[in-house]
Specification:
Largest sheet: 2 strands, antiparallel
Strand content: 15-25%
Structural class: alpha+beta
Organism: Dyadobacter soli
Shape: globular
Low-confidence stretches: 1-20
Radius of gyration: 16 Å
Oligomer: single chain
Mean pLDDT: 88
Number of helices: 7
Order of helices and strands: HHEEHHHEEHH
Distance between the termini: 29 Å
Protein name: YHS domain-containing protein
Keywords: Signal
Helix content: 40-55%
Number of domains: 2
């Protein structure tokens, strides 16, 4: 039983190691798992980007579903880059980086946020303003940590 628990813990740790190295959540070098961050604002939904429409920014490749979205990002990337590098907003408020899922997105005051999963998003939404304030304080302390 101990070996099984140890193996599971090591597997989970290995999945999170990459996520912790960069200040942008970029598994396999693709920011936000390859989703088009501009589409969250323009289409109000997660849209997968294309490898042929990519832009390298902040040590990650950002993918886009259209040339127009790519150009919008290139013109004003900080307008579209998610808060806390795309890591979980709730986790950031608690002082750690956690991976996220695209369907957990939220736009608050023209800023894009993600969460670990839908259950975490529901909890985050209940105290969103308070947790954003905490995360804004925590992010500079953890963004460069592994």
């Amino acid at each position: 039983m101990k070996k099984l628990l140890l193996a599971a813990a090591l597997m989970l740790a290995a999945q999170g190691i990459y996520a912790q190295k960069s200040d942008i959540f970029a598994p396999k070098g693709k920011a936000i798992k390859g989703y088009d961050v501009v589409a969250f604002f323009k289409d109000a939904k997660p849209v997968a980007g294309a490898d042929s429409l990519s832009y390298h920014y902040k040590d990650a490749d950002w993918l886009f579903a259209s040339r127009a979205n790519l150009e919008a990002f290139k013109t004003a990337p900080d307008q579209y880059v998610p808060q806390y590098g795309g890591y979980c907003a709730y986790g950031t408020s608690q002082g750690y980086k956690a991976p996220t899922e695209a369907e957990t997105w939220t736009i608050v005051n023209d800023k894009l946020y993600f969460n670990y999963n839908m259950k975490v998003k529901d909890n985050w939404s209940k105290k969103r303003e308070e947790l954003i304030e905490k995360a804004d304080t925590q992010w500079p302390l953890i963004k460069d940590k592994q």
